[in-house]
Amino acid sequence: MDAASLLLPILLIAVFYFLLIRPQQKQRRQMMELQQSVQPGSKVMTSAGMLATVVEIDTDKDEIVLEVAPGVHSRYVRRAIVNVLPSGEPTSPGAADDAPTHEPVAQGEDRTNGDDIR
């Protein structure tokens, strides 16, 4: 076997490592640091997309208690946290805007485009 035939497999392994394995390890390390940095009072988003406030952290069981609505607490594993929200961002979808998102329709007002729908 010559050196050229050994170079190709070594090169493929190196490319595979630097394009796939190393970035995934870096992302996993960043996610673990984020999950460890969560403190009570932090506003977070879970992997299911639920926005909540951290109430309590149980490091022995690696669990956290989240307040998902006023007075409603749920227990999650710490790995469920995927994002920590800035403190000024609302944790409920409707909290950001007090105005309705649609214009109210007056009673009897026709909002169709003129086609008769049957």
UniProtKB/TrEMBL annotation:
<keyword id="KW-1003">Cell membrane</keyword>
<keyword id="KW-0811">Translocation</keyword>
<feature type="compositionally biased region" description="Basic and acidic residues">
    <location>
        <begin position="108"/>
        <end position="118"/>
    </location>
</feature>
<keyword id="KW-0472">Membrane</keyword>
<dbReference type="GO" id="GO:0015031">
    <property type="term" value="P:protein transport"/>
</dbReference>
<feature type="region of interest" description="Disordered">
    <location>
        <begin position="86"/>
        <end position="118"/>
    </location>
</feature>
<dbReference type="GO" id="GO:0005886">
    <property type="term" value="C:plasma membrane"/>
</dbReference>
<keyword id="KW-0812">Transmembrane</keyword>
<protein>
    <submittedName>
        <fullName>Preprotein translocase subunit YajC</fullName>
    </submittedName>
</protein>
<keyword id="KW-1133">Transmembrane helix</keyword>
<dbReference type="InterPro" id="IPR003849">
    <property type="entry name" value="Preprotein_translocase_YajC"/>
</dbReference>
<keyword id="KW-0653">Protein transport</keyword>
<keyword id="KW-0813">Transport</keyword>
<dbReference type="Pfam" id="PF02699">
    <property type="entry name" value="YajC"/>
</dbReference>
<feature type="transmembrane region" description="Helical">
    <location>
        <begin position="6"/>
        <end position="22"/>
    </location>
</feature>
<comment type="similarity">
    <text>Belongs to the YajC family.</text>
</comment>
